[in-house]
């Protein structure tokens, strides 16, 4: 049965990918789920296909993108434990592979999972939420890889007309687990709402959007998020008593967007 909408998800077996595999199910939507890992088998009513392979493979990516309406690019190396060369090869060059595959296959939209760590050395100003297009101040090589990839996304919009939304995702957790997460938390349900908005908003162009829930401790702007139709519901403040005693990010780093990633370097 033909589907009205085909969405490719890279990194589909990751934490957010696994969530979206199930929560983005819609009648008339077909998901192409790409991951290096062998994923859980399809359920009987699941309109999807499982693709085992690397998004770093240009031919595989272009084949996977054929006829697709959008790509959600989640795949890549995470925040810690990798060398510069690894971030360069996977996160930066890999994003280029995805964007080039989208261009060649005629996919009109890419939703890129960026990160708050692209601006992690920016300070939090009480009463002045950090703007959506906050100038990059990465707090790690991982953060640099997100900045570079946002730049590639901007280029592919300006030069080739791709619609690209870069989501600077905060702390994706089932529940907030630190004082910092009281402002940076992105709940699972709001995560789905965010990606649905990024898929549905008409003619977005190139956008940078904060990916957090409707947290009472509003440290970042939701102006662009609202503009694309994102309506968050959850609030980390509901868990404030639970996290009051937690201090995963010490007092010296709580004033930075990147939290502990902005801690002084020790050799």
Notable characteristics:
globular, Rossmann fold, two-stranded parallel ribbon, alpha/beta, 267 residues
Describe the fold and architecture:
With 267 residues, this protein is α/β, with parallel strands linked by helices. Helices cover 32% and strands 17% of the residues. It is built from 8 helices and 9 strands. Strand 1, helix 1 and strand 2 form a beta-alpha-beta unit. The longest helix is centred in the middle third of the chain and has 22 residues. The chain starts with a strand and ends in a 24-residue tail after the last helix.
Q: Report the mean per-residue pLDDT as an integer.
A: 94
Radius of gyration: 18 Å
Oligomer: single chain
Q: Can you identify the CATH class? A: Alpha Beta
Derived from helix and strand composition plus strand pairing, the structural class reads alpha/beta
Low-confidence stretches: none
Question: What is the CATH architecture descriptor?
Answer: 3-Layer(aba) Sandwich
Helix content: 25-40%
Strand numbers in spatial order across the main sheet: 3-2-1-4-5-6-9
From N to C, what is the helix and strand string? EHEEHEHEHEEHEHEHH
Question: Mind summarizing the main beta sheet?
Answer: 7 strands, parallel
User: How many discrete domains?
Assistant: 1
CATH fold annotation: Rossmann fold
What's the number of extended β-strand segments?
A: 9
Number of helical segments? 8
Give the CATH H-level superfamily: NAD(P)-binding Rossmann-like Domain
Percent in strands: 15-25%
Report how far apart the termini are. Answer: 58 Å
Name the shape in a single word. globular
